[in-house]
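Tokenised fold entry reproduced for everyone:
>
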Amino acid sequence: MEALGTWGRLSRGPPRPPGPSAWAGTFATWCWPCSSTRSHPFPPSSPSPTPQDAVLLVQEAKPECRGRWYLPAGRMEPGEGIVAALQREVKEESGLECEPLTLLALEERGPAWIRFAFLARATGGTLKTLEEADAESLQATWWPGDPRALPLRSLDILPVLDLAARYRRSPPHPPTLPRELPCSPLCLRLLLPFANAAGDLWVLLATAGTPHLPVVACGTSPSELRAGLRPPLLRLLRDCLAWDPQPGALGLLGLQHRAGGPGGADGICFNVVLSIPPGSQRDEPPEPRDPALRWWPVREEGLRGRILQRLRAAVPVRS
């Protein structure tokens, strides 16, 4: 028995001055009741089992949108991780406990505004009723029909619900969840593959120390906070490779974050892949201007296949 679940905005309270860890985000979660055991109670206000494809909605208590319906939303607390914030907000607003299963999408307008969309499973709790209304929400429900039949706070949840439904039918990428690893700044770790018409494949590497994927810092100046995550990557292509290939979509392969890391570090690292459309390709990749970068030919067939497969199986990034 499956049900759609929660959406929300995550931010870290009032705006902070620009710095290596200045970022704010949002989250969304697609959630369904666990059907393997009755120790995980179904919501008492809906049939048991919950109707397939029902969406978990909460009725807003905020004065500006009171009475309208939305997916659960909230703010991250200082020192709180992404998954912990998601689970706390779902519990506070809907009464349910959940287990995130994968990231569905990342929406961003630069480090100042990042939205995470998750797929999750409801694992316990009971739906909040009107008798339990508080400042977080008035009540919650499993809605089995078209959410547009309700007065919604905003229609911006509809594309996420569509993503979730498509993921259930045929997952386009492997399960992707934040890894609890510390990171000082907000940064992008870039997988940039180059393939020619003959099927040869190269990957861009940084050569300082042990060869590794290039890492680009984001949001290090006020002008970058709302400039999107793509400009630092395009600057790398332009300045370090003397190349302006008009790259295609940005995809997310993974992410790492640990609140309260060494020295209070609260950054986040996105592992991203930037695809190059065939029309902009050449027989060989451009020679890097920067001696700290080089192209590595991928000759091992298994690794080559995995890299090409991930080009088609990344979490979408919407800017």
